[in-house]
Amino acid sequence: MEVTWYGHSTFGVDVDGETLLIDPFFDNPKTDTDPEEVDPDYVLITHGHADHIADADRFRDAHFVGTPEVISYLTDEYGIEDGTGMNLGGTFETEETYVTMVRADHSNGLDTDYGATGGMPAGYVVSDTKPTQVSDAESQTFYHAGDTALHTEMRDVVAPYLEPDVVAVPVGDHFTMGPWQAAVAVDWLDADYAVPIHYDTFPPIEQDTDDFVREVEATGSTAEVLVPDGDEPIDLDDLLGY
After folding, report:
1. Which of 2, 64, 98, 137 lies most in the core, judged by the most C-beta atoms within 10 Å?
2. NCBIfam families of this UniProt entry (predicted)?
3. For the segment 59-87, what is each residue's pLDDT rounded down to a tens digit?
């Protein structure tokens, strides 16, 4: 598995040649990638805020996954033709991956005249093996927390049952967790590696990622914090050794 951060909360995930794109928003200062260069098989949407769906219409050939409300909105407003609506706790199976939608604590308003919401916001756990109660030491699993506050489901459900190896957590504060809460999340998630996301895009979420590194160390977590440059791939095969 290879994951690539395109700035803000936008990630590409490649599993044996099958590609997924999470929260397409390329108008951010961390990426030089033109959306036209990206050709995902699937697009996962955590919630309907503009800084997570702005470039959705660039990927109309992909299969979209999100809450039923968000998929309906993207169909009506962005011309999306192929999508699956699902909800928290569900797992969407592709040919190469298992995508489990998990809780995120955030708002989810849609840009409509009548104040519609996109249902519950979400995070995604992407794994190359089917999640079960039986631990699988050889699986490779990436957790994108979405826009969220700290919540105990990270500790009580995601960590013990979905077993993420690499976690991407928002650190920008103001709209999501800040560095210290994100660090607690990393500790609770018991992952090997952590990537800070959702920062520096707008003035309210400007952050020094060194603060996040120090906060993770202060929890006693053994996770290594990775602060990739935008567009820099992270190869889980190399990180995990399998």
Report:
1. 64
2. PRK00685.1 (NF001911)
3. 999 999 999 999 999 999 999 999 999 99
What 3-state class would DSSP assign to 153?
helix
Pairing mode, strands 91-93 and 224-225:
unpaired
Q: Which residue has the tokens 């990436």?
A: 142
CA distance 87 to 66: 8
E strands within the chain?
2-5, 11-15, 18-22, 42-44, 63-66, 83-85, 91-93, 98-103, 122-127, 141-144, 166-170, 193-197, 224-225, 233-235
Residues 16 and 10 sit within 8 Å (Cβ to Cβ): no
CA distances from 93 to 166, 193, 227 (A): 20, 25, 30
The pLDDT tens digits of the residues spanning 224-233 come to 999 999 999 9
Tell me which amino acid residue 218 is. Answer: A
Question: Is the distance from CB of 224 to CB of 196 less than 8 angstroms?
Answer: no
Q: What topology does CATH give the domain 2-240? A: Metallo-beta-lactamase; Chain A (3.60.15)
Model-wide pTM > 0.90: yes
